[in-house]
Amino acid sequence: MQRTIKSFSIKNVQQFKEHSLLWAQQFETAIWLDSNNYKQQYGSFDAALAVEEFTAIKTDFTNAFDKLKEYQSITKDYIFGYISYDVKNDVEHLTSNNFDGLDFADLYFFQPQKLFFIKGNTVEFQYLQMVDDEMDSDFDDISKMSFRAQSRNLKSENDIKIKLRIHKEEYHKKINTLLNHIQKGDIYEANFCQEFYAENATINPIEVYHHLNKISQPPFATFLKVEHQYLLSASPERYIRKEGTKIISQPIKGTAKRLVSLIDDAKIASDLFRDVKERAENVMIVDLVRNDLSKSAQKGSVKVEELCKVYSFKQVHQMISTVVAEIEPKTHSIDVLKNTFPMGSMTGAPKVSAMKIIENLEETKRGLYSGAVGYFSPDNNFDFNVVIRSILYNEEKKYISYSVGSAITAKSIAEKEYEECLLKAKAMKYVLLHSE
Asked: Rounded distance, CA 156 to CA 207, Å?
């Protein structure tokens, strides 16, 4: 699919980014990806915006990867979208029977009519030829904000009542059940998640996203709008990236809070790096990711580039490992995804056993949470995040949801795991209850 490409210089990058996202709200479909200028080894742009379907695929989990492979192979263009956690049921003989208050489709991708890539002080417009006569006027509209901005829901309601799907006492019981499974040898690690939610609640998605992103500034921030459904994500985690024949996966396991004092903050980061339990969690998932990548990789090419390196974000310190592999040029991109999905950091090990056990213990269908959002390029490269630290919103149902989880191992203490969940939930709760 031929695209017309044109570059423009930007005087005020941050303002242009904010204006672009506001401009995008006129469309039924929009995806915004923002690295927040986070310095990382692997990346293609500072930010990207894709709007307005030309073609699209929306499906449940049944044969989802085969359908995506056909769509991506035929389209041969940029496609943006998501794979929900429940597409696990297409990979293995699994089910998802828990409550779902959000109703996102299991898998959705679209070919955008209009596409922007921001790199430094330049924005590159890539438009389908059918709309390329709108490039200059769109750039002017965004730069000058001369279009009529949406004015509805200028403020989020502050009377949102956040409820717990699993109360503390019940959470402790479920952790003990998981520990029994670990002691019996059924699993040796599981990522157990819980939902916080609000009913009959209305928010302004743009406002909430901006606030969440401002206090977190993660490298894989995402704003997704598909008609009346929204994802507002401050994800710090990459699921998987393909650059030519190189595959990169960067699982996160290990979390510590940021402290005001520079000395104390440096000490808690150092303590995280040395923490035996946190390192064990990370290493277990690295082994799982290595195994997943080996299903597609050339023999002997799977390597750990970084093991248990501590990275610092505005809210938390995170322990991240980087696992890479080489694939044959003929290996299909979708097969790499299918062989590694869902991300090991969000499941546990052994992977299938862990997914079965957590499905029985969790109270909510994960849906888009702990799935992945990203894109494919025309040359068959891709990049996907892990949907964590995120708010999901169904505007039609007035249902707001955010979920958090932690890795349960033999050394886990229920109370500490609960505290870790509350730490991870802190930013989402704050922005919902304190509109700017």
From this structure: 8
Q: Measure the CA–CA gap between 425 and 391, rounded to whole angstroms.
A: 10
Instruction: State the DSSP code for 368.
Output: T
Integer Cα distance of 277 and 409 in angstroms: 8
Which tokens hold the place of 73? 């192979």
pLDDT digit string (tens) for the chain, length 436 residues: 789 999 999 999 999 999 999 999 999 999 999 999 988 888 889 999 999 999 999 999 999 999 999 999 999 999 999 999 999 999 999 999 999 999 999 999 999 999 999 999 999 999 999 999 999 999 999 998 755 555 444 455 568 999 999 999 999 999 999 999 999 999 999 999 999 999 999 999 999 999 999 999 999 999 999 999 999 999 999 999 999 999 999 999 998 999 999 999 999 999 999 999 899 999 999 999 999 999 999 999 999 999 999 999 888 899 999 999 999 999 999 999 999 999 999 999 999 999 999 999 999 999 999 999 999 999 999 999 999 999 999 999 999 999 999 999 999 999 999 999 999 999 999 999 986 6
Give the HSE-up count for residue 99: Cα atoms under 13 Å, Cβ half-sphere.
13
Helix, strand counts (H, E) of the chain: 11, 20
Place of tokens 């546990």: 348
Would you state the structure tokens that stand for residue 431, as one six-digit string? Answer: 């922005």
Beta strands (DSSP E) in 270-389 are 303-312, 316-326, 348-349, 372-376, 382-385
- Residue 303, CA distances (Å) to 298, 299, 322 in order: 11, 11, 9
Q: Clarify whether 253 is annotated catalytic.
A: yes
**Closest C-alpha to 128, from 275, 245, 1, 220:** 1
Catalytic residue among 114, 253, 365, 424: 253
Structure tokens at 29: 């479909």
> What is the rounded CA–CA span in Å between residue 388 and residue 342?
13
- pTM more than 0.90: yes
Cis omega (within 30 of 0) for bond into 218: no
Note every long-range contact of 163-167, with CB atoms under 8 Å and residues 24 or more positions apart, other chains counting.
163/196, 163/197, 163/198, 163/199, 164/194, 164/196, 165/99, 165/194, 165/195, 165/196, 165/197, 165/363, 165/364, 166/194, 166/195, 166/363
Active-site residue (options: 52, 189, 195, 237): 237
CB 112 within 8 A of CB 80: yes
